[in-house]
Amino acid sequence: MGNFFGISFLILALALLLNTHSAFQPLQTSVAFSILGYNITCYVIPRAKDAFIKIGLYGKDMSKKGKPIIPETIGIIPAITYIFLMFCFIPFLFLKFLVIDTSGGGNREIGISQDYDKFKLFPHNKLSSYLSGMLSLESMILLGLIDDLFDIRWRHKFFLPAIASIPLLIVYYVDFGVTSILIPNFIKNYFELPFNNIDLKFGYYIYMAAVSIFCPNSINILAGVNGLEVGQSLVLSILLLLNDSCYLIPLDKNSPSYDSHLFSAAILIPYIGVSLALLKFNWYPSQVFVGDTFCYFSGMVFAIVGILGHFSKTLLLFFIPQIFNFLYSVPQLFAIIPCPRHRLPHFNPQDNKLYPSRVIFDKRLNPIKEKILILLENLKLLSLIKEKDIKTGEIIVKESSNFTIINLILVWFGPLREDHLCLVILILQFLVGVGSLIARHTIGPWLFGYDNLHWLVQ
Amino acid sequence: MGNFFGISFLILALALLLNTHSAFQPLQTSVAFSILGYNITCYVIPRAKDAFIKIGLYGKDMSKKGKPIIPETIGIIPAITYIFLMFCFIPFLFLKFLVIDTSGGGNREIGISQDYDKFKLFPHNKLSSYLSGMLSLESMILLGLIDDLFDIRWRHKFFLPAIASIPLLIVYYVDFGVTSILIPNFIKNYFELPFNNIDLKFGYYIYMAAVSIFCPNSINILAGVNGLEVGQSLVLSILLLLNDSCYLIPLDKNSPSYDSHLFSAAILIPYIGVSLALLKFNWYPSQVFVGDTFCYFSGMVFAIVGILGHFSKTLLLFFIPQIFNFLYSVPQLFAIIPCPRHRLPHFNPQDNKLYPSRVIFDKRLNPIKEKILILLENLKLLSLIKEKDIKTGEIIVKESSNFTIINLILVWFGPLREDHLCLVILILQFLVGVGSLIARHTIGPWLFGYDNLHWLVQ
Question: Is this entry keyworded Metal-binding (chains A, B) (predicted)?
Fold first, then answer.
């Protein structure tokens, strides 16, 4: 492991030496930080994990023979590694503001900014937004850790990301404050509006808070299979990087989106490093569990990238599988259909495979609900067990597979071993994401009148 | 308790309404936030403290009959309350930067800053330093919590504040970067130097990191008596406020130090609110223990105030009692004199009072050490138990009071009940602090050729 460290420091040093005049300077540095983050996380996890069990942070892996005890909340390790790497990243990301004369007490009588063309970094006046993003992220890590420690009730923890997003929103207000959004062309034409953007004012802050609540929670509810929390986050970050590269590869630095996607990529690449290291230990059969901390942390990274990069609508497109999972869960979450205490897949120790878990209807369901369930089964969205009433000839629904995407995949492709199940979900997520990306740059321009991806429409 | 909330919101609202054109606008708002912080902390502590015991965060109070179990690490509650209040404080502290035209993607084609004279807030370009301070503070809270959870070894935890100070130092480098300090007049004259300041360059960052390490750790080692950790932090913050008011009361807004001391006061006042609430529960007999988290949090608040306000040397003057405690402990810390496992005062359940704890010398000490101990006893800095060797007539030192300021106070004034002991220490600390403050503004100007407190020397 000492070797790995040596190598990564070497790579870091090389990258820093080579990047002074490249067009992608921040990206080279971020790759170096990513490698460093991977190595640090890989170094710390095996050394720290027993300490987590010792203080009571552990869980049982229910889908394994003997239900072994696994350390929980290990996601705090990549999260803290990441945030401190991002602090050290600052001098490689932003132009320096040089105070030439000061009367003391922190005053800035004469000051200049470093030359942009020479250094190819981000303008100094974007530093505040970056710092506010890091404050939100660190708040999320802190609140996530507290949630893992104290097991906060579901209806409270749902709002933790909104609290963590306070610094991001407040600094946005003080430091940027633009709250207008583009109106799709067809709406503009239909209502014959004389303007093509609308100022949401305070509504824009509610929208940003909603994005911050949505991303962490939607990752948190698509969970419970070894490697799934980290895997889906990695797929999401790869999709976002693909989207970024659409703007970066043409090297059109005059495009208004160029900088914001370079920024997004620079934030995501080190994230991929630390998450890959976590996946190494969290993949089937898991040696560690990631905890709510990691789901919150990941979701907040995406929310920050989307908000600061001003592409939060595109961001939400990549969350389609999570949105589907949520909508699909609604009948059970809101008790329209009975919801058992656990909805994780059923583990069969004989063949070491997972089967869809089922909810048994003790009382007969309302006939309308039964009809809908049967319709869903015909659409291949459920697996039911039905019985024919001997007297009336009616069909009675006795059991149904639980309403989660994980069970649905098992209905379609199951039974599967846990790692194969995870892989199938990740592959589907990736394919849906690529589809969304293509749709974004084909249907999007048609709706809004233009695409901010200039090379595509020119 | 609902009443308290109502009242504090009322005060907050009033303060916000009244403060638009006052010279002390940030201070009025900070008083309102302070009251709010006090109320929130008072509301949360009694409701949350049992949850801390439940997850294993508790300690035994050794200086009470029956050694009751007390929840530990409660300092995380005022710390988190404080940091989120400081996020919400931002719009009341800093001028807004208004982006008038943007090409999208977070770009700022045309932007202006709000008018300083109209709003009487801090310039927008200081926002980054403030955010970096909050990042360091939040990192300290996070690392403090991890220390309390995992009981990190002494030689590692000593450096946690240095890690937490990384964002502060890095943003200082990117955003301000002035690293020169004034040379005292007598040195300048003696060496006939042609300049009156010297550029420490990288050394200045080491100095700032040292201040960040020193403040939290020095509070952490003067601990172990109900109310002492919070009490000494409150005395420190009152002394710093006294120092600030020397610069603020003359209302000389052209003084270069005016802004930095207004800033310092604005940061300290809400801190006093949340700490007072903690003291309410931590004062003798303690219902809660504060944990390392609180000591680190407090120390970091002071370090940030001193570094961002550019008066870190003055700050260190107020830490004289803590510095004395450290120097006084050195013989035992570095094993020059044997050190027992615990050095807390000895509790006598009969009279409910504390007595100096003692170290018993099993082996006879080296005669030089014995002579020094006897000298210290004559200077009233130790209490010894000696024996005369019947054969040789030599005086042998058998026992000594332990080398901590707490035991020394008990040697001087003991035995004392725990709360009286704490009060005596706090009063002494306050008196020494006021003495330092006076010395700062009388000897300081003589050493440096001028005082930045203009009204005093004019």
Answer: yes
Q: Is A129 on the interface with B (CB under 8 A)?
A: yes
Residues of B in contact with A173 (CB under 8 A): 91, 96
- Does B323 reside within a domain? no
Residues B260, A96: C-beta atoms closer than 8 Å = no
Task: With residue A83 as reference, give the H or E element that holds it.
Answer: helix A76-93
> Is B78 among the domain residues?
yes
Number of separate domains in chain B: 2
Can you give the C-alpha Rg of chain B in angstroms? 25
Is A359 part of a structural domain of the chain? yes
Q: What is the pTM of this model?
A: 0.92
A39 and A130 within one domain: yes
Amino acid identity at B205: Y
Q: Is the same domain home to A260 and A396? A: no
Residues B421 and B408 in one domain: no
Do B398 and B422 fall into the same domain?
no
Residue B397 structural domain: 346-413
Selected for mutation to probe chain A from B40, B139, B263 (highest A CB count within 10 Å) is: B139
| For chain B, counts of helices (H) and of strands (E) | 20, 11
Question: Residues 271..290 of A with a Cβ closer than 8 Å to B: which?
Answer: none
User: Chain B interface, mutation test: which of A54, A96, A137, A138, most B Cβ atoms within 10 Å?
Assistant: A138
Tell me which chain A residue has its CA closest to the CA of residue B144.
A142
Q: Please indicate, yes or no, whether residues B254 and B355 belong to a single structural domain of this protein.
A: no
Residue of A nearest to B102 (CA): A178
Paired sense of beta strands B97-101 and B110-113, if any = antiparallel
Q: Among partner residues B138, B149, B176, which is closest to A135 by beta-carbon distance?
A: B138
Taking the Cβ of residue B253 and every Cβ of chain A, the question of whether any pair is shorter than 8 Å is answered with: no
Helix H or strand E segment including A431: helix A418-440
Examine the fold and report which residue of B378, B393, B413 is the final residue of a domain before the chain moves on: B413
If asked whether residues B7 and B138 sit together in one domain, one would say yes
In a domain, B112, yes or no: no
Chain A residues in contact with B261 (beta carbon < 8 A): 105
Nearest chain A residue to B111 by CA distance is: A176
ipTM of this model?
A: 0.91
Per-position pLDDT tens, chain B of length 458: 456 666 666 666 666 656 555 556 788 888 889 989 999 999 999 999 999 999 999 999 988 888 999 999 999 999 999 999 999 998 888 877 777 777 666 677 777 777 656 666 777 788 889 999 999 999 999 999 999 999 888 778 888 999 999 999 998 888 877 787 777 777 777 777 777 778 888 888 999 999 999 999 999 989 989 999 999 999 999 999 999 988 888 766 677 778 888 889 999 999 999 999 999 999 989 999 999 999 999 999 999 999 988 888 889 999 999 999 999 988 888 888 888 888 889 999 999 999 999 998 888 888 888 888 899 999 999 888 888 888 888 888 889 999 999 999 999 997 999 999 999 999 999 999 999 999 888 877 777 665 565 554 43
B300 and B370 in a single domain? The answer is no
∠ CA B272-B36-B72, rounded to 5°: 60
| Chain A residue numbers touching B124 (CB-CB < 8 A) | 174-175
Q: How many CA atoms lie within 13 A of A137 on its CB side?
A: 31
Question: Which candidate in A139, A312, A314 is best for mutational testing of the B interface (most B CBs within 10 A)?
Answer: A139
Strand partners, B58: B71
